[in-house]
Write a sequence for this structure.
């Protein structure tokens, strides 16, 4: 069965600190996609990244970076020099290649204090 | 990027009434739409998958007679919560995908339902 685990329920940091959000997944599929979404207080999901299971290259986008390691089934997300606007709930998700369904983790609530 | 809208963005209704939520793909044809429910401080839980022109497939534990889903066109899917009760109060989110093009899921902004 597929599963996504985000062990960190809530993280609090002070502005300008770096923070890493952990994501561990389980799947028997060899082809799948991994995602990260941001959900600010407004509720609308903001797409951050999609990663193919065959592409283990790390990705950097501005202050955001992602570390994908198939050996440990992890897809961690790091925010460098965090800002108050980064405060949100962040979800990691795994796609089922047969149905295209997304399996979401329980989310990590990030609070960045000024 | 692809845009998905939901209407209404929020709704308050009385217990026992029915509420319809619309999900529209504005600039692409969505062969598949997904409906999620999110309770406060919880994750998104998939309720059902709807493919245009066919019956929706419901996840285990979701009552198909209570949550009626219609996907009659490539740009519109509707979720009707019938005989709503306070425990149905939740944030309902749809996503739309084209199995012809990118297979990317695009999420709507969500609908907050409060049943009094």
């Amino acid at each position: 069965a597929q599963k996504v685990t985000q062990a960190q329920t809530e993280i609090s940091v002070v502005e300008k600190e770096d923070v890493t959000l952990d994501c561990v997944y389980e799947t028997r599929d060899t082809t799948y996609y991994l995602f990260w979404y941001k959900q600010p207080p407004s509720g609308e999901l903001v797409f951050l990244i999609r990663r193919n299971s065959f592409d283990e290259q790390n990705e950097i986008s501005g202050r955001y970076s992602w570390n994908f390691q198939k050996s440990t089934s992890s897809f961690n997300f790091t925010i460098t020099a965090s800002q108050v606007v980064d405060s949100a709930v962040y979800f990691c998700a795994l796609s089922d290649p047969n149905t295209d369904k997304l399996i979401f983790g329980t989310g990590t609530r990030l609070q960045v204090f000024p | 990027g692809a845009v998905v809208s939901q209407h209404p963005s929020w709704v308050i209704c009385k217990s026992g009434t029915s509420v319809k939520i619309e999900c529209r793909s504005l600039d692409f044809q969505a062969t598949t739409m997904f409906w999620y429910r999110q309770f406060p401080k919880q994750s998104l839980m998939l309720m059902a998958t709807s493919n245009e022109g066919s019956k929706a497939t419901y996840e285990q534990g979701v009552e198909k007679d209570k949550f009626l889903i219609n996907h009659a066109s490539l740009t519109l899917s509707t979720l009707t919560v019938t005989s709503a009760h306070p425990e149905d109060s939740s944030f309902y989110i749809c996503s739309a995908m084209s199995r012809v093009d990118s297979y990317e899921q695009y999420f709507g902004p969500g609908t907050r339902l409060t049943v009094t």
Q: What stands out?
A: Residues 93 and 104 of chain A are 4 Å apart (CA to CA). The two ends of chain A are 41 Å apart (CA to CA).
